[in-house]
Design brief:
single chain; alpha/beta; 2 domains; 15 strands; 39% helix
Length: 368
């Protein structure tokens, strides 16, 4: 039996209330402060993970800090909380520890955590990229976009996930815009893409203007608040939101029935797996970063597979192949926590097509 552990944390006070009912009756700020006083803790035992080759069990370990607290508290304090969770994983017998959400963003993206533990650590970002790219390809096809000619926008392009998404897709597209706040890093990435693929990409720091012209958008930032509003998107746009917390406002789902928003990095796990924790997914579904940890355990690859901010395309391709070997797969799309059927996607495509047709045939009156 192979063993692994995965460390996660609540996005906000509402997440805390899912585990501790009393938190529903407390102010959000009080919930956060009270929860942060607790040590990292085991919150569930994962059973039933089984591939054609072997089986594994694992544990979810909670770091008691919300996303906002992780980004605002001193880095050493946050890292100590994460390392504390890793030591629990060691005591439980885990052979590898996966880092979820903001635990893989704080500090040096897992390197310090790994140095302070006796088991390897992985961020899961390699498989997150693999599933995001696979999702984008399929969603684009279903929405009638030709990836070769579509206008692709990557928001958060200089981050570890955004950067490698850009490097991979640059081999397949002819029109790409990169968006991030650090202009120097943007220029460096654009130069690498030009050298590697011959594609001249546009770089901008104004996300609003870039979004409004995008057919395919991948958004993967570490922002605490939503960045994409309904008015930022054109009809027919496909948005793959890899970020947690989400970059796309819920208002998009409420008022834009002509765009497709999908959650990046959501996969079906093999076996009759029981997570014994409600993180908003139906049975057997997990985030890709969680899945990477499981895949490595099933493969008996107890190594720090993905660490730091420089992701390797070769490792993205390798973990995708291992996922296929062990039976991990994308199973449709999810949007704002619910499944989206092919029929719904077809209706979105038709509404977007109708909208585009009306716009193209609009007659502008001329004053005599």
């Amino acid at each position: 039996m192979q063993r692994f552990a995965f460390i996660l944390h609540p996005s906000d006070a509402e997440d805390v209330a899912r585990k501790f009912i009393i938190a529903k009756f407390m102010p959000d700020m009080l919930v956060e402060r009270s929860f942060a006083m607790l040590p990292s803790m085991k919150v569930s035992h994962i059973r039933g993970l089984q591939s054609p080759y072997t089986e594994a069990e694992g544990w979810f370990i909670a770091c008691p800090l919300t996303a906002r607290m992780m980004m605002s508290l001193p880095v050493p304090y946050v890292l100590n909380k994460i390392i504390q969770g890793g030591r629990i994983a060691e005591k439980l017998g885990a052979g590898i520890l996966g880092l979820g959400a903001f635990t893989k963003i704080v500090g040096d993206a897992g390197i310090t955590v790994a140095k302070n533990l006796n088991i390897p650590v992985t961020t899961g970002n390699s498989y997150t990229v693999a599933t995001a790219i696979e999702s984008v390809r399929e969603a684009a096809r279903m929405m009638g976009h030709d990836l070769k000619t579509a206008r692709v926008v990557i928001l958060g392009a200089t981050g570890s996930i955004g950067r490698v998404c850009a490097l991979i897709l640059a081999r397949e597209v002819s029109n790409m815009t990169l968006v991030a706040r650090n202009e120097r890093k943007l220029e460096d990435l654009a130069a690498k893409i030009l050298y590697d693929t011959g594609l001249a990409v546009r770089v901008v720091s104004d996300s609003k203007k870039a979004l409004q012209s995008g057919d395919i958008i991948i958004t993967v930032t570490s922002a605490l608040d939503t960045l994409i509003e309904p008015e930022d998107l054109q009809a027919g746009a496909v948005v793959c939101d890899v970020s947690r917390p989400r970059d796309v406002s819920k208002r998009v789902a409420e008022v834009r029935d002509d765009v497709l928003v999908i959650e990046g990095g959501v996969v079906e796990v093999p076996g009759d797996v029981e997570f014994n924790l409600n993180f908003g997914f139906p049975p057997k579904m997990a985030y890709a970063c969680m899945a990477e940890t499981m895949i490595l355990a099933l493969e008996k690859r107890y190594e720090s597979f993905t660490l730091g901010r420089e992701l390797d395309i070769g490792k993205v391709e390798e973990i995708a192949a291992l996922a296929k070997k062990h039976g991990f797969k994308l199973n449709g799309f999810r949007s704002f926590g619910r499944a989206v059927t092919p029929q719904e996607i077809e209706m979105i495509r038709l509404r977007a097509s109708k909208e585009a047709s009306i716009s193209n045939n609009t007659i502008i009156p001329v004053n005599p």
